[in-house]
Automatic annotation (TrEMBL):
<dbReference type="InterPro" id="IPR000595">
    <property type="entry name" value="cNMP-bd_dom"/>
</dbReference>
<feature type="domain" description="Cyclic nucleotide-binding">
    <location>
        <begin position="26"/>
        <end position="111"/>
    </location>
</feature>
<dbReference type="InterPro" id="IPR018490">
    <property type="entry name" value="cNMP-bd_dom_sf"/>
</dbReference>
<dbReference type="InterPro" id="IPR014710">
    <property type="entry name" value="RmlC-like_jellyroll"/>
</dbReference>
<dbReference type="Pfam" id="PF00027">
    <property type="entry name" value="cNMP_binding"/>
</dbReference>
<protein>
    <submittedName>
        <fullName>Crp/Fnr family transcriptional regulator</fullName>
    </submittedName>
</protein>
């Protein structure tokens, strides 16, 4: 949870460097499952290279919740913290290089850092950023049309559209691949009129 923030919060560096030895580097092909829905998450994942997705199964259909790229970290957080079955599956989308750290080492690191001045404020900032992101996504699903959500994706996170296969983007937007094709076609026609 913290490894990707060490450049933003230099006071972490000494503590984090001490825990580098506990990170396992994995080179993985696309479509590698790192955590299955229903299993307990015991590892924190940091992406050095590649793309991963977080998804759940809804009556036989995969519903993509989020994508993760270079220098981002993830786990099924509630499962990781509470030792409960994960609601999500984590899978590589492209060949990826990740570092995994076992839960016990992350726990020890967090204990050590809890004594550092400003640590709690930093943690609140990290969680607030992530919470704000998820709230914005939730509100967008209620307020915006699929076309608006796709346009937001193009404007705010074009790397997703450039790197992620269309069927995963459609799943993320909550539409079929046919509907996504129609949206893209409509937007392309709109641009050609200018």
């Amino acid at each position: 949870m913290l490894f990707q923030f060490k450049d933003q919060f230099p006071q972490l560096k000494l503590h984090l460097d001490k825990y580098l030895q506990y990170q396992e580097r994995l080179e993985l092909p696309a479509k590698t499952i790192l955590l299955e829905e229903g299993k307990v998450s015991h590892r924190y994942i940091f992406v050095e290279k590649g793309c991963l997705r977080l998804y759940f199964n809804n009556n036989g259909d995969d519903k993509t919740v989020q994508f993760f790229f270079e220098n981002e970290g993830l786990s099924s957080l509630e499962s990781f913290v509470n030792n409960t079955p994960s609601m999500f599956t984590i899978e590589t989308i492209e060949p990826s290089v990740v570092y995994v750290t076992q839960q016990k080492h992350v726990g020890k690191l967090m204990e050590e850092l809890s004594n550092e001045p400003g640590f709690m404020k930093m943690m609140l900032q990290i969680f607030a950023r992530r919470q704000t992101h998820y709230i914005n996504e939730f509100v967008s699903f209620i307020r915006d049309t699929p076309e608006q959500r796709y346009q937001n994706l193009l404007a705010d996170r074009p790397h997703i559209v450039q790197r992620v296969p269309q069927h995963y983007i459609a799943s993320y937007l909550g539409v079929s691949t046919v509907h996504l094709s129609r949206i893209k076609s409509k937007l392309a026609k709109g641009k050609s009129h200018f």
